[in-house]
Amino acid sequence: MTTLIAWIAFTGTGERPELPRAVYMASDSRITWGSSAHRWDAGRKLFSPHQQPHLFGYCGDVVFPSLVLGQIISAIDQGILFDPSDSSDRKHQVIFESINASHDRWYNVREQDFSIVHMFRRGVWPATAFSGWVISYRAKTRDWTSEELQIPTKTTLLIALGSGAGMARVHTRTWNDSDVGGTSRAIFSAFCEAISATENKLSGGPPQLSGLYSDQPPKTFGIVLDGHPFLHGLPLKPEMALSNIEWRDQLFQTIDPRSMSAAEGARRFVRPHFD
Description:
Elements: E1 3-9, E2 22-27, E3 31-33, E4 35-40, E5 46-47, E6 54-60, H1 63-77, H2 88-103, E7 114-122, E8 129-138, E9 143-148, E10 156-162, H3 165-176, H4 184-196, E11 208-213, E12 219-225, E13 228-231, E14 234-235, E15 247-248, E16 255-256, E17 261-262
Helix pairs in contact: 1-2, 3-4
C-alpha cells in the first residue's frame, strides 16, 4: 500500500503574500504483496512531465496506475494529449477519460481499488493558481469518480490517502501544534515520521517528493536519508551526477549531495520540541 499526501504552500510574506507559491506531493516507496513481509521498498509512486505543470501520484493498486501514468506523462511530453490552450478542467477531463479508456482494455485480470491525485498550475507568477483532483476506481462496483480538491488560502495539507493516511494526519497535527506549524517543512517532516512509524508497516522506504512552483516546470527532488541519496525510491551512488537536481532531507532542508549535509547558505532546521 501507500501513504500519499499533497499540500499547498504560501509564504505569507513578500510580494503578494495572499497568492500560493507551490504545491507539493510526497509518497513513500513501499510496495507490498499481502503483508509487509513481502515488499519492495524502491517503487516509484510520483510522476510529472518535463515541462508542463502537472504532478501525479497514486495509491492502492500498483500495476495499472504506475503503467498508465507513464503513458499519460509521455503523451503530455509529446504534446498530443490536449491543446496547450485548453482550460485546466478540459485537460483534467482528457486525462481522466484516457485513464478510463486504458483500464477498459484490461481482460480477466484481478482488479483492485486505486486513487490517482492530479495537481495542475494555471498561469505563472503573479497570475498563479493551482487546481487538484482525485481520480478513484472501486473494483467491486467498477465505479469511477473524479473529485476536485478545494484549494485553501494558507499552507496546509490538501489530502492524505492510502494505508498510512490516518497516521500522516496524526503526525501533521502534532507538527502543526509546534512552533513551525503551518509550514511546508512541518508537513513534510510529519509525513516522513508517519511513514517510518513502526505501527505503519504497509508504508515505508525512502520518501519521494515532487513540487510545482509558481513559474517553473515540475521539480523532482532527490531525498537524502541517513546519509544515502535516493530518487523516487531508487538508491543512488554518491559518485553519480547528483548535483543536477535539488536534494532535501527528512526535515525539508536543502542538502548538498557532495557532502550529504545542509547546503552552504541553506536554512538549518531542527526537529522542534513536542510536549
